Amino acid sequence: MKLQKDIDALKRDWVKDPNWDIEETPGFEDHAEELLAFRKEQEAKWKANAEAKHLVSFEYKKQVIEDELDALDAFITDLPLDANYYHLRIATEQVFATLLLAEQIKRVGDLLEEAHSYDKYIRGN
Q1: Distance (Å, rounded) from C-alpha 85 to C-alpha 100?
Q2: DSSP reduced 3-state for 20
Q3: Looking at residues 42-58, what average pLDDT do you find?
């Protein structure tokens, strides 16, 4: 049985360098359940933080583009109905379509990243 200070020190060391399964640390077999729970909780926090940062960055960039498009749309509304107006409308719609496509690509990328992480975990790499 290890002292709580030893367990806490092990947790701090693992957080700095989580390249092993903390619950399998030699000498801490009696604490494997606690250490496993700690690892899973910490990994969930890291994943949530990474996803939040990525989402905030993506959403911010998307909002900036949408704001620019709204400004362009207001400008287009004041133009006379001629060929230039229609070219600008087409360009605006193409940008919106590109944003939708980017969102779909991001979702696929996230799913592939999750699958890759899971595969690495299963293989032990």
Answers
A1: 23
A2: coil
A3: 78
Tokens representing 63 are 């909002």
Rounded to whole angstroms, the Cα distance separating 66 from 58 reads 12
Domain segments of the chain as ranges:
4-123
Distance between CA atoms of residues 82 and 11, nearest Å: 68
- Whole-number Å distance between alpha carbons of 11 and 38: 8
At 69-85, the pLDDT tens digits run 777 777 766 666 776 77
31 with 2: CB under 8 angstroms? yes
Query: For residues 55 and 46, what is the distance between their CA atoms, to the nearest angstrom?
Result: 14
Alpha-carbon distance values, 60 to 53, 64, 84 (Å): 11, 6, 30
For the range 4-12, what are the long-range contacts, defined as Cβ-Cβ under 8 Å and sequence gap of 24 or more?
Answer: 7/31, 7/34, 7/35, 10/35, 11/35, 11/38
pTM: 0.49
